Please model this.
Amino acid sequence: PVFPGYSYDYIFRRQNFLWSDSYALSPTWMNEFRFSYSRFAFDSAISDDSVPEAHTLPYLSIPNVSAPGMYTGIRNFQFANKWLFQETQTKLTGRHTLRYGFEFLRQLTKRRPAFNERGMLIYQNSVDPAYSAFANYLDDFSGPAGISAKNFGEPVFYPNQFRQSYFFQDSWKMAPSLTLTFGLRYENFGTPANIFEYPAFAGFDPSKFLEPNRVKPDNDNFGPAFGFAWSPGVKFGLLGKLFGDRRMVWRGGFQVSYDAFFDGMLLNIQSDAPNTVATTVVGSFLWRGTPDFFSTLPTDPRPVTPMDRQTSVLDPNIRSPYTERWSLGFQRQLPRGLAMDLSYVGSASHKLFTKEDLNARQLDGKRPHPDFGIRQIVAGSGNSNYHAMQLRVERRFATTLFLTGSYTWSRTIDSTSDISAGPSMNYEGSALTSVPAGQGGLRLDRALSDYHRSHLLVFVYSWDVPGPVNGFLGYLAGGWTLSGVSTFTSGAPYTARNGFDRNNDGISADRPDIGNPNAPLNTRAVISGGCPTGYLNPDTNVCVTPDDVHFVQGTGFPGSSTVGRNTLFTGGINQTWMNVMKMIPVAEGKKLEFRLEAMNVFNHASYANVPNASVVGSPGPAGGLPSRFLNRDYTLATNRAMNVQLKLVF
Model:
């Protein structure tokens, strides 16, 4: 505090680098002004202690060689300067409490992600004669199919953003027991992708591939809000017993809010053609490969063509995702110091960021637009919804004991749960639907979300253990506190995998077919030409028919027997975290704090990780070990852990 009504915060942290400055001005409770500035820097790469020549070498990859200084990665960094200006005012007039304000955020960033600007050389082992990759490196032979590659383009980019928002809210106290709230918020996140020359998908006209394009601005993000709070004052009769006299509060509301683009999307755009031109030379497949391999490192970019892949450019009409939220519930004060909160909470999100393959490979190996390469774009075609019943009960038994229990029963549904990773990972590392969205992938994949948890029960407790406060017994038995959290969660959904691309569209996240739904869940069959039935169970090495097993390796386009997304569940979580703390006075103003922390104190087994669920490729029984297919025993990843801490406070 500088003087009453003003405050100043300063933070400096050295772990890479963070510096933050903020100022707050509140001369009266009716007005609040805030300005802040922060700077963030991050870098990582080859050690600064290396010789200067090491900072000019390309990246060298030599199999079976691990030596200090061999890694010659190029420095990555990020510097971000953020200026935040906020102003909020409140005005009382009659029964109305009016709040209005605005916020401006300006972010100036300089960022250099992983970019192969100095080049990369990958040496390979030779088979005949047996020259190792290291020997090929010393003699400057590529080895069979060695790779020499370099990216051409601008490695440093500036994802500068300007965000602005404005809001108005009116809280109207219609009666002592009823308050209504109305509000409207406007948000504009700008179009940060337009810092690139080619941020958007230009369509399938080859003549427009090298024409600069833009993402259209999104300027209509208005979010209304409504809420109410009602505390009925009924004293007599059945309603009096039910509601109590102002002992129950009903609350409800509806709100629309918007989300912004994130920097990771810009990183990926930078790596797409024609923003970046990746030039690669593949060494000879014969003998020791290509001689004088270092000299093959590209010095000039190759001509860029529509056949170059794009996996991250944006739909030019993409919009900010928005979410509608609603809730209705009540809080009730009960006898014996109990308080209960019961609510229904729901939401629906629209225009979520999704990956769409617009030029997916067909069953015949051809693409709909053969003059173009891979065209995977980021669009806003995703939707999700969430519904939950939430119950919370708390009780303070005495001044030293507090207990809260909460239970949530929910359901979360979507088509893809993450734009960059997740169960729908394809071979290129992007989250796509199991079949292209244009062929109904979003509809086929609509199911429980990756984040769905049907049941969640949590107990939080804290107990200041009664005991003496003075004398020797006070040192020994007084000042103890026991606290903890116990969590019980149902399992996470996951998807059975086919194990390979069944319909030749380039996406390996395809799913298998169901043979016999009544067969044991962990039974499977793969196609085998050595079996008269055409199928083999790799866990028993016995020829089977689809009617003998649950999952069957699928081929061709998914059909009515293809298993759905996220139909399997991991084990749940049953864990208790406990803290035991003891305060020991040492002298005036000084004390020792002893703390014992125990995670998963009862050492319950947790099978919350996804087991190997690939029909083709999951290891079968070997070496006396059982099959890994849908075997949760290979997913156990939690054990009891305990920490002890002794701290002097002065």
In short: The CA atoms of residues 115 and 155 lie 6 Å apart. The radius of gyration is 31 Å. Confidence is low (pLDDT under 50) at residues 1-6, 67-71, 421-430.
